[in-house]
Here is the input.
Amino acid sequence: MTRFWAAAIGFIFVSTAQAAEPPSSCQGLLLDPEVYERVKDAVIYTLLFNAGSESDPDKIFSDLAHWLEGQSIWIEGGSTLSTRLQKIRSEMDSAQMREQIIACYPNLYKKLYPEAARQAEAARQAEAAKRAEAAKQAEAAKRAEAARQAEEPARQAWEAGAPARAAEAARQAEIATGAEEAARQAWEAGAPARAAEATRQAEAAKRVQQATSEAWAKAATEQNLKVAYADYIVVKRCHDERGSYLTGSISEPQLAKAQAAVRAIEQKIKNPNIDLDALWKQAKTVAEDNFRLRSMPEAWPGHPSNPVELLCNRALGELIKSEESITKKDF
Here is the structure.
């Protein structure tokens, strides 16, 4: 009897604010906002009085029925709300009613099944981490695609002989030749002043031509080195991480061949004005982005279209091609 009146006194202080909408997991009578709020209050008291004790389902639901009985005292008898609460209380021992209450009040589920609740929370966190990783991979893919779009045309242009740059060099050479011819004609015509001006213009044109040629040569060298470094970094990582998840396989002989190719390229291209460390850092960023782009969950080792294996093999092939092409050029 003492317990009953303690319940009655406690429920005097229950908030009379407008009932909140039940969550989507609620069913049956618990979909009524007023019923949901009253049962929620009873659940709260049940959890408070069972804190620190073992989660015995029969005791938990027995206590819940007790608090619902105390809740009904302050509701007009015969009202719809009173009738619905009494029905819930009368069916408290049925499996269906217990399932509806557990689904509607997650904190009660955590009390009754703590291990299952922990596993569900761990699964939720794992899913959130998976979504975060997917977003990270999507961003890496975006950066890698931007890098590819920026660098692939440059590679193709150099491999194709850079016709646009060749045309510009030819135009500069033609200007220089025209200036020299004007100087020669001026001297032959006995016009020293015009000849001197023409000579000055010819020398200026030659300097512009020389500077343009050197700038293009330096840019070409840097691009060749950067592409070679990026290919080598991919090959090296494929070798170092071979056998791990989603990683392509590069053998020791293949790695040695790639190292020899990079050394041959560096020995062939000798320009003290080129910052090799800076090029290496830029190439590393490009390589890592391309590697992340292709390390997607749908790829697995041994699959004929595994993007990682394709990346490893393509990088090795491109590096060997670059070494063969560059060592034949004059710098």
